[in-house]
Amino acid sequence: MATGDRRRRVTIADVASHAQVSTTAVSKVIRNAYGVSPAMRDRVQAAIAELGYRPHAAARALRGRTFTIGVMLPDIRSPFFAELLDGLTEHLADTDYQAIMIQGGLTQRSEERAINALVDRPVDGILMVAPLAARTRLERVAADIPTVVLGRHERSAAYDTVCDDDDTGARLAVEHLISLGHRRIAHIAHRDNSRARPADLLHVIRAETYDRVMREHGLADEIAVVTTSYSAEGGYQGACELLGRDPRPTAIFAGADQAAVGALGAAHEAGLAVPADLSVVGYDNIQLAALPNIALTTVDQDGAVMGRTAARLLLERIEGRTSALRFSVTPSLIVRRSTAAPPPESAPPQTT
């Protein structure tokens, strides 16, 4: 900071004095307003750089805009959410907007606190990723602040939604295993305390599609579901339970890659080789899935595209669009080395 008093924040007046222009001219340059000559813009931007001036968010909020977007994530540890953020920040890179993140947590109480924290702060828009709140609560937020919801399948006139075609993705996973010859295919599902309609929740759609596809192929008697969580711990616990059954499954479809990684750990602990003894399929295609020592077959829903799309829709909302839009990603199956034909069944005992 160029001022002698390091405790004092550089103001717009300091910039105007340094550039020998009016504060109105500085404000126009900051807002990228119409009617500023190139020479004026260059002079003001040089003064801003020399003084280290940064617009004060609270002051900008009083003028109607802060150029900040609030992003609420349920869990900051998820690798898939990191890919969403990569796409979001990539789209924002050529704008004046910055994203600030807050963790909603896994309970309704912690999420409500996070929502209130964003509402009470001067953000221009909010992206909620897989929120637990009821649609009516989300619509109350969207009535005051432009909002995009990612990961839920509901339709609302108050906010935009970005989601994956989870029915298609789950079908790709299960039918891939069936095509390899598997019959004893189990599923690791997710449980939460969401207030959304079950039909709008991605994990419910994936579990129901698994059930439906198994029945369509005459495998109703082979349906086996363990409901834990879409985490490595949940996948491990679920796989341990499934592998302890007799007969044990020859394949597991985990509803998320993190759960699939946990299932791989359980298989290793049980002395099973993947895919010779057990095939495993995940969902999300996180970067970890492509590592050679994991090589996980998975459903790719392109998190970066979802993040970029959410950012684009949110900026459109901020700029005044009021009609609701819904964007759905078409998933694809990425086949790697964690799936193969099932092991030969043990020969029946010989009788004498």
From TrEMBL:
Coiled coil: none annotated. GO terms for molecular function: DNA binding. Pfam families: LacI, Peripla_BP_3. Keywords: DNA-binding, Transcription, Transcription regulation. InterPro entries: HTH_LacI, LacI/GalR-like_sensor, Lambda_DNA-bd_dom_sf, Peripla_BP_I. Residues 10-64 form the HTH lacI-type domain. This is LacI family DNA-binding transcriptional regulator. The lineage of its organism: Bacteria, Bacillati, Actinomycetota, Actinomycetes, Streptosporangiales.
